[in-house]
């Protein structure tokens, strides 16, 4: 069975670290703090399990389908624990569990295709596919289970084994997920390890890890790539975004305001591909600001376990400090808060949903990724100006264009420098589509068949047509 790795080292039994409920700011549980040098045994067991796991695709399909069933059965327990440690509303946690199960089912039925090469030579040449070996999956705190599944589901379906490390801010639901999956998968096929740094760095640089897949910040992603480079392991990096929404001059503000607001504020704005900047035509700018500000002022903010809550807390104290810092900097530079603008009084890591106007275009809240419930709305005079501004950061994950004339909107979307462009919506993904960024937003491709092939290597067999 896959395991949540126990404390094994002599003299370290019981070493643990605190896990904080972001709705209260108080510790509510602990998780094992595993030593980096304990990874050797974990990865060795993962490597041994790989030999049997890769050999039987039919067995993998059955196991992954069973794993999806097990996740759904444990949905209530997983969702409540996820909300407790991450902060998101319980309805969003249930959606994350559903997405985790759906991804397992999707990849359970996906298989690589053998391709025959015909090039006029007197040989039969076939391109077949082989798994890579043990995979390291390093997952952030904003979608701990969904992003874990985005990494381990294609890796397992391809015939690899996985060592999964969650963020120290959200280790508990992932540990529980590992125990749930243990009822369906063979031993050591998936192992969850928890701990603070340098555990992740040691995992990324381990010589028996053949693929490192990471989601997180640009600086950490660069460090992961350097660590993986020591053993020439493959890397897949999703490093966040600063997605722009460009509203055209034929936009129906009343019609799109709800969709635009939630594209920015779902999961308290802690979404890599959330809308993080809005560019509105000058004549519509005030109307857009007012529509978004009304929603920011009226949305129910509170603990995720409260059924009335629509917007939970920021996940952790360092991220809350980051949100405060970029907001205060913008206000000091002349921006105005049409809604919010400050941390909420009381316990927990709550920040008022914030709409900023009159923001200098070079303010960090515009040029960098704020990753919280703060949204700048900037006016533009010409469409070329808006597109240049949308493309003018080091990120290139996603973007969107909003307008009534869909053909025109699509033509504008073609000019955005990003991996995915949406029209009249944002941050919606199919399990079957590729997901990748450009520039500082990442390396490699996740999602759909592309995600499966990212966990495989080609193997070519040449056979004479006749002797």
Automatic annotation (TrEMBL):
InterPro entries, alphabetized: Ald_DH/histidinol_DH (IPR016161), Ald_DH_C (IPR016163), Ald_DH_CS_CYS (IPR016160), Ald_DH_CS_GLU (IPR029510), Ald_DH_N (IPR016162), Aldehyde_DH_dom (IPR015590), LUC3-like (IPR044086)
Region (Disordered): 1-34
CDD domains: ALDH_AldA-AAD23400
Gene Ontology MF annotations: oxidoreductase activity, acting on the aldehyde or oxo group of donors, NAD or NADP as acceptor
PANTHER family for the chain: ALDEHYDE DEHYDROGENASE-RELATED
UniProt-recorded name of the protein: Acyl-CoA reductase-like NAD-dependent aldehyde dehydrogenase
Protein's UniProt keywords contain NAD: no
Species: Streptomyces murinus
Family under the similarity heading: Belongs to the aldehyde dehydrogenase family.
Keyword Transport: no
Positions of the catalytic residues: 238
SUPFAM superfamilies given in the database record: ALDH-like (SSF53720)
Ranges of biased composition (kind: Basic and acidic residues): 1-10
Residue span(s) of domain Aldehyde dehydrogenase: 15-452
Pfam families: Aldedh
Keyword set, alphabetical order: Oxidoreductase
Residues annotated as transmembrane: none
């Amino acid at each position: 069975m896959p395991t949540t790795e126990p404390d094994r080292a002599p003299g370290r039994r019981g070493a643990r670290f605190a896990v904080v409920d972001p709705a209260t700011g108080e510790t509510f549980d602990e998780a094992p703090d595993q030593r980096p040098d304990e990874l050797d045994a974990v990865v060795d067991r993962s490597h041994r399990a790989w030999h049997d796991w890769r050999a039987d695709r039919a067995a993998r399909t059955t196991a992954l389908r069973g794993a999806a069933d097990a996740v759904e059965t444990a949905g209530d327990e997983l969702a409540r624990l996820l909300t407790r440690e991450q902060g998101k509303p319980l309805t969003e946690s249930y959606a994350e569990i559903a997405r985790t199960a759906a991804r397992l089912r999707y990849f359970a039925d996906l298989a690589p295709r053998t391709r025959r090469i015909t090039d006029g030579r007197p040989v039969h040449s076939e391109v077949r596919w082989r798994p890579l070996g043990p995979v390291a999956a390093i997952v952030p705190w904003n979608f701990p289970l969904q992003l874990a599944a985005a990494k381990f589901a294609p890796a397992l379906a391809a015939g690899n084994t996985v060592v999964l490390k969650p963020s120290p801010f959200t280790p508990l639901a992932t540990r529980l997920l590992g125990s749930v999956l243990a009822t369906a998968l063979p031993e050591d096929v998936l192992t969850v390890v928890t701990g603070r740094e340098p555990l992740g760095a040691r995992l990324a640089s381990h010589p028996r890890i053949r693929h490192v897949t990471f989601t997180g910040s640009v600086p950490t992603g660069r460090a992961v790539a350097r660590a993986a480079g020591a053993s020439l392991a493959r890397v897949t990096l999703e490093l966040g975004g600063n997605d722009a929404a460009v509203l055209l001059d034929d936009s129906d503000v009343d019609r799109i305001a709800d969709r635009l607001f939630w594209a920015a504020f779902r999961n308290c704005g802690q979404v890599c591909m959330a809308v993080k900047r809005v560019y509105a035509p000058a004549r519509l700018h005030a109307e857009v600001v007012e529509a978004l500000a009304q929603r920011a002022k009226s949305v129910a903010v509170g603990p995720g376990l409260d059924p009335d809550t629509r917007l939970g807390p920021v996940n952790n104290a360092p991220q809350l400090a980051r949100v405060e810092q970029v907001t205060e900097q913008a206000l000091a530079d002349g921006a105005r808060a049409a809604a919010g603008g400050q941390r909420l009084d009381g316990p927990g890591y709550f920040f008022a949903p914030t709409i900023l106007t009159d923001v200098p275009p070079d303010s960090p809240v515009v040029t960098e990724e704020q990753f919280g419930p703060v949204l700048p709305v900037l006016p533009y005079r010409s469409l070329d100006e808006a597109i240049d501004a949308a493309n003018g950061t080091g990120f290139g994950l996603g973007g969107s264009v909003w307008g009534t004339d869909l053909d025109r909107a699509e033509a504008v979307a073609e000019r955005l420098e990003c991996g995915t462009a949406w029209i009249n919506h944002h941050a919606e993904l199919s399990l079957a589509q590729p997901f990748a960024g450009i520039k500082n937003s990442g390396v490699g491709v996740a999602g759909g068949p592309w995600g499966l092939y990212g966990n495989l290597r080609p193997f070519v067999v040449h056979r004479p047509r006749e002797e």
